[in-house]
């Protein structure tokens, strides 16, 4: 009986909710300057599925259920968002009259600065550009500072990599399955056409996906959303590129129901800020929409952004002291021109078809299909039976001679025996030959013949590490308003990946052929492919390694949002399935039985739950609380121990566990906008694989044979804890003068002592010889995470004149940036003498702590100045923007890592004690003084 009454009460409450009478909200949207009506402005009721586009006359009409307060959002490309509060009165219809939108041409130019950091992104795409704004409307002062002011110092919001955020295009997730991160180079040069965006920050609700703990960035390319007209952009800079030109045309929706947008651009530089960093990028974009009727619309989007850039090298303090912060060891002169040996090339065109179905005024369904293919290549020099071509190879540096020690005396360290004479000679030689010698490599690949020098076997070649991906995806998202107070969002997505990974020979450098062997081994062990031994490869051939990654993923989510007079809250759930597999195309000589063919399938099944609560203290104050707990599959990259050689899966690999929470206080008035945020994120059970050459790593006394080896290192059970607070303050001093204050406090640490396993592939073919060694725990707990300043402060001042010119400046202080430590040096094996298996007699805990103390980079102060002016000429727009970053030309380190070569106490202690370490840490440096000029013409 009690159950029957409960069911009756629930049904009765829903009946009352549906029984409420709808009201109509109407208005007309116009351009604030021209006073002309604006067509295709997106008009939505926040946190509902109610949405409509304005007509040619700028009119809109929404049908909604009345509650005491709702937020109406107007959004159109090229205009500032307009957010209005709707006050309902006794079920009466609401006529908002004429609503004016202000253009944002002067505001949109700084957004293009994001592309200036492309060359500064690390090769694993770990940098994060997930900037966002409150209530999914506009960026607040903190988001602006983190993206534009602090981004040049590689600041990561909340210390999280971009794999913790979700990048979406028309409802389709764009994070790569390989590493969980977006491939930022796919978007290069498309600034003008990717401005229709919606953000959610942290664990806040998104209408399109469950999302990550960093937030969600959704980009819309529906053709009817673009402002009709032509825009030309011309830019100049001295950062990653020198010149940029972009042209964009949007047709607007025609009477026959067609709309399209096309854009093309070019960015290039013979040399960027750092020496030898050439840059060449094109961009082509098209989106076409056909409105079938009032309910159905189909949209096609395609873009192609081929780009290549020369990389810049990380350098030791020794190299920087000799050559300066702009020095780059990756290039050399060839025929009078600078040629970079390490070039990253990205060509991955994308095609997407979307169906927009407006079921009724309260329900819409967006479904899509996507196909992306192409290639990513990273070039380098390969060599056999020859000296290293690297100009900073350790044996070529003065420190090699000034850090010499004699042979060990039994169990004790040898004497310090520096050779300063040869160190001076080495210094002179290096200064005279500080770049790659391309001509010497060409000569080494030739031999004397009857007609002079003729091509012979190449000892040096230029190759690419290539990844050719083919990704197919389908998805569907449903958004509906169930009752006046309850809305539902749900979606499902399937992705299939075939990723071909191989070594590709680009250039024989004047030679005739190159042997497909590993010269460090002999016989069958040296063969890359036992099915085709002793191959002589030529330009365009695959060699070295060759395999496919195969992956399938399914992601689904549901979300309920509840909105009432004083409170709002939401609950969301996610479910995902992933399976990974490696398919070897070569039978490697080291792993003849574990390299060819398909590996076992690795399966992961994961769940997620999150929720949030909003309490409206008053019309000016809000409190927000969000929390999430989820599990997620490890990335494809970290699932296999050494995918280039074999099918082996990382031992003990499992899904990561992520727990995150945040609390926000927001105050908003015409003069003051304030946000205070506290956050907590714990990521457990991470894994990470890396490769390096280590000296004195194995215990000869235990019978492991050589104590030096090129090894793969795998970390498991790695936990990270990120806690901190954010402050965003914006104060309108006068109608034309505004001040901003942004602050970030963070404490990002490793929260566990992960397990370390080392694989020595050289032992793979030896009967009864161990290949993988358990080094126990790396004592990393409470070490700082690297790669970002953990604390930052920004103070800004901006003047905007009524005559449409503006100028602004900001000063920024960034500190608590730490080096990436070597885990193997933090294991107990570090103190063991590999010659006899006993602890080093000179090793003490005090000296060990000194050697292993994590380096903290010096803080940096960055001063930036920017300004602009806009004109209306015959109803056309002209905008000019200029900025100078790091006006004071500060020199600072943005990141760095310890070299893991000295893998035991004695080797590291001798190297450091010499005063001129041969294997000191390597560092990346930020840009010095850079400028950016931009001219925009709107026709």
TrEMBL record:
Coiled-coil region(s): none
Domain of life: Bacteria
Any one GO cellular component localisation term in the record: cell outer membrane
The keyword Membrane is annotated on this UniProt entry: yes
Pfam families attached to this UniProt entry: CarbopepD_reg_2 (PF13715)
The keyword Signal belongs to this UniProt entry's keyword annotation: yes
Name the UniProt record assigns to this protein: CarboxypepD_reg-like domain-containing protein
Residues annotated as transmembrane: none
């Amino acid at each position: 009986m009690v159950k029957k009454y409960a069911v009756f009460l629930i049904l009765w409450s829903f009946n009352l909710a549906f029984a409420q009478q709808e009201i109509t909200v109407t208005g007309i949207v116009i351009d604030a300057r021209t006073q002309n009506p604006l067509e295709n402005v997106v008009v939505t009721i926040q946190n509902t599925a109610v949405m409509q586009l304005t007509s040619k006359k700028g009119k809109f009409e929404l049908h909604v259920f009345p509650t005491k307060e709702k937020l109406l959002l107007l959004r159109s490309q090229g205009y500032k968002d307009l957010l209005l509060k709707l006050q309902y009165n006794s079920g009466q219809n609401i006529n908002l009259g004429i609503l004016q939108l202000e253009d944002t041409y002067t505001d949109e130019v700084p957004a293009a600065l994001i592309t200036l950091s492309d060359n500064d992104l690390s090769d694993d795409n770990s940098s994060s550009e997930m900037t966002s704004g409150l209530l999914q409307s506009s960026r607040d002062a903190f988001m602006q500072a983190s993206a534009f002011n602090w981004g040049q110092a590689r600041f990561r919001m909340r210390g999280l990599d971009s794999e913790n955020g979700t990048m979406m295009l028309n409802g389709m997730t764009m994070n790569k399955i390989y590493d969980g991160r977006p491939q930022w180079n796919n978007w290069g040069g498309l600034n003008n056409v990717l401005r229709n965006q919606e953000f959610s920050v942290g664990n806040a609700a998104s209408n399109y996906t469950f999302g990550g703990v960093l937030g969600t960035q959704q980009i819309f390319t529906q053709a009817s959303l673009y402002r009709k007209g032509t825009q030309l952009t011309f830019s100049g800079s001295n950062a990653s590129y020198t010149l940029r030109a972009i042209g964009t045309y949007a047709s607007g929706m025609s009477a026959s129901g067609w709309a399209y947008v096309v854009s093309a651009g070019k960015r290039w530089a013979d040399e960027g800020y750092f020496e030898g960093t050439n840059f060449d990028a094109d961009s082509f974009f098209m989106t076409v929409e056909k409105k079938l009727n009032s309910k159905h619309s189909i949209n096609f989007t395609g873009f192609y952004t081929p780009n290549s850039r020369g990389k810049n090298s990380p350098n030791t303090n020794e190299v920087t002291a000799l050559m300066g912060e702009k020095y780059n060891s990756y290039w050399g002169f060839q025929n009078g021109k600078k040629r970079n040996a390490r070039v990253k090339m990205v060509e991955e065109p994308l095609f997407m078809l979307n169906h927009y179905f407006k079921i009724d005024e309260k329900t819409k369904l967006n479904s899509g299909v996507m196909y992306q293919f192409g290639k990513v290549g990273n070039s380098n020099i390969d060599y056999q039976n020859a000296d290293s071509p690297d100009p900073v190879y350790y044996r070529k540096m003065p420190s090699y001679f000034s850090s010499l020690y004699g042979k060990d005396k039994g169990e004790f360290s040898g004497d310090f025996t520096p050779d300063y004479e040869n160190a001076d000679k080495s210094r002179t030689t290096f200064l005279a030959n500080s770049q790659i010698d391309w001509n010497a490599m060409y000569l080494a690949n030739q031999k004397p013949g009857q007609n002079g020098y003729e091509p012979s076997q190449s000892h040096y070649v230029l190759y690419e590490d290539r990844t050719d991906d083919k990704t197919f995806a389908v998805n569907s998202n449903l958004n509906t308003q169930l009752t006046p107070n309850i809305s539902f969002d749900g979606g499902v997505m399937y992705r299939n990946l075939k990723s071909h990974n191989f070594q590709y020979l680009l250039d024989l450098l004047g030679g005739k052929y190159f042997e497909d062997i590993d010269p460090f081994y002999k016989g069958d062990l040296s063969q890359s492919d036992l099915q085709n031994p002793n191959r002589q490869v030529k330009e365009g051939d695959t060699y070295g390694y060759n395999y496919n990654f195969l992956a399938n993923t399914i992601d689904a989510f549901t979300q309920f949002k509840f909105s009432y007079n004083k409170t709002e809250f939401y609950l969301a759930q996610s479910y995902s399935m992933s399976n990974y597999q490696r398919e070897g195309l070569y039978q490697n000589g080291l792993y003849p039985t574990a390299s060819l063919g398909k590996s076992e399938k690795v399966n992961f099944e994961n769940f997620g739950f999150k929720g949030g609560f909003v309490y409206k203290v008053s019309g000016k104050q809000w409190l927000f609380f969000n929390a999430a707990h989820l599990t997620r599959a490890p990335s494809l990259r970290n699932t296999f121990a050494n995918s280039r050689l074999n099918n082996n899966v990382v031992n003990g690999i499992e899904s990561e566990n992520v727990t995150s929470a945040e609390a926000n206080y927001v105050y908003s008035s015409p003069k003051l906008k304030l946000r205070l945020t506290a956050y907590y994120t714990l990521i457990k059970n991470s894994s990470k694989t890396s490769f390096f050459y280590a000296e004195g790593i194995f215990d000869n006394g235990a019978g492991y044979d050589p104590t030096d080896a090129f090894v793969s290192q795998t970390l498991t059970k790695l936990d990270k804890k990120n806690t901190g607070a954010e402050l965003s303050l914006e104060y309108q001093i006068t109608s034309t003068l505004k001040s901003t204050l942004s602050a970030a406090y963070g404490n990002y640490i490793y929260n566990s002592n992960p397990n370390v396993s080392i694989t020595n592939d050289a032992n793979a073919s030896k009967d009864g010889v161990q290949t993988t060694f358990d080094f126990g725990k790396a004592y990393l707990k409470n070490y700082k995470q690297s790669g970002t300043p953990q604390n930052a402060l920004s103070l800004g001042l901006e003047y905007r004149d009524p005559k449409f010119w503006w100028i602004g400046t900001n000063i920024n202080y960034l500190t608590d940036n730490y080096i990436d430590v070597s885990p193997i040096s933090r294991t107990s094996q570090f103190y063991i003498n590999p010659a006899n298996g006993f602890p080093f007699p000179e090793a003490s805990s005090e000296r060990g702590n000194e050697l292993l103390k994590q380096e903290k980079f010096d803080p940096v102060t960055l001063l930036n100045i920017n300004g602009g002016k806009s004109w209306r000429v015959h109803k056309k727009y002209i905008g000019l923007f200029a900025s100078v970053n790091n006006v004071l030309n500060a020199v600072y380190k943005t990141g760095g890592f310890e070299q893991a070569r000295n893998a035991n106490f004695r080797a590291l202690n001798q190297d450091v004690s010499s005063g001129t370490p041969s294997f000191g840490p390597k560092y990346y440096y930020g840009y010095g003084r850079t400028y950016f000029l931009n001219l925009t013409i709107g026709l």
